[in-house]
Amino acid sequence: MAMSKGKRWAVAVGGVLLVLIVVVVGALQFAQREVKERVIAALGPLGSAEHIEVGLTSVHLTNVLLKAPPGWPAGSPLRADEITITPDIRDLIARRMHVRSVVVRGFDIAVLRTKDGAIRLMPNLRETVNRSDTEASGTAASIPREKQIDHISFEQGNFHFYDMTVGPPAFKVTVSDAKATVDNLRLPALTDPTNVDVTGSIKGPAHTGTVSFTGWIKVASKDSQTTTKLRGVDIVMLDPYLIKKAGAKAQVASGTIDLTVDSTVSNYQLHAPGTLTMHNLQLADSGNPLDTFMSIPTKAAVAALKSHNGDITLHFVLDGNLRDPKFSVQEGLMKRIGNGFAKALGVSVEDVAKGAGETVKGLGNALKNLLGQ
Questions:
Q1: For residue 30, is it within any domain?
Q2: Does residue 61 register a pLDDT over 90?
């Protein structure tokens, strides 16, 4: 019996749909293999994942670990309970590396500040990604393919900051209960603004404060506009930055700090106004004339703090050229905070001079005792 015209159309349409489904499934499988190969290449010889599961639209990694490369002084660069990568399937089929989202959960990430002030994190991951591009192209001289990542989120983790400019050993601060987002990453150029938002907690011996960092950064040119905030952080957590050692160390008995810095960098020129407030600041007066706090003799600082009930607010502005080798953001910031601290306390030039005189006298007495005279 001849098939009716309607049935023939139905069979034809069904056949076309079947072919389309086969094509789509094949394309998805190709894209999945592409993403998995990229992930394995990115992990490199120092990285591992307990399990890599490739789904229809995403790749899921569990128990991810990046081991430290030789000479890395800051522990494992990355540990994560799980990472989910969602690529743009159409772009992958067209051989374009476009990732719509990366979600990192249950993480510990080490951030290293080197002695020259540069920030480094996950160095082996960056190196293996660049190397895989070169190997895929077949020639070392070719330009790596562009990569676009729309959104990265970090959830339920910790950032461990190691500062080599303080020490040795490196000064460590942990931002716990942290979450962060990074939007609009275009590699390798990094000329477009990348939006960053980081929040977390800093747990001290007496208080748990909060920290936030928001804004945008053009990594290639170093142009940026960011806001940094600290709220209720134990001052002792910032000892290496606030306390100057001169044979002995001024002891902070108690106190918390609030800090807001609005920073703008344009053509390497930095402009960063800020406000710092210290609450219930108490310094232990050891009687040692060599002790200082923010370059102020501790005796003078203790006496002045009593008249302020331990609360001090100061305003500062930091300006400088990041290309100037004589300009240091950290030293410039501490100098301006120190000057503002003395002004806010009402410590006069005579008080500072007197304290300096006591310091010299104390140093002389120490030398006399050392020489047995």
A1: no
A2: yes
Domain that holds residue 367: 198-373
Q: Kindly report each contact of residues 333-336 with a partner whose C-beta sits within 8 Å and lies 24 or more positions away, as own/partner.
A: 333/272, 334/241, 334/242, 334/294
Dist. CA 284–CA 207, nearest whole Å: 19
My answer on whether 185 and 204 are in the same domain is: no
pLDDT digits (tens, 9 = 90+) for 73-86: 888 899 999 999 99
Q: Where is pLDDT greater, at 165 or 243?
A: 165
| b/e map 318-352, b = 16+ CB within 10 Å | bebeeeeeeeeeeebbbebbbebbbebbebeeebe
Pairing between β-strand 269-284 and β-strand 312-321 as defined by DSSP bridges: antiparallel
- CA 182/CA 154 separation, integer angstroms: 9
Q: Which helix (H) or strand (E) holds 40?
A: helix 5-43
- Considering only 49-58, 196-205, 264-273, which range has the smallest mean pLDDT? 49-58
pLDDT value at position 121? Answer: 82
- Secondary structure element (H or E) that encloses residue 361, with its range: helix 349-371
DSSP class of 116: T
Q: Are residues 319 and 221 in the same domain?
A: yes
Side chain identity, residue 101 = S
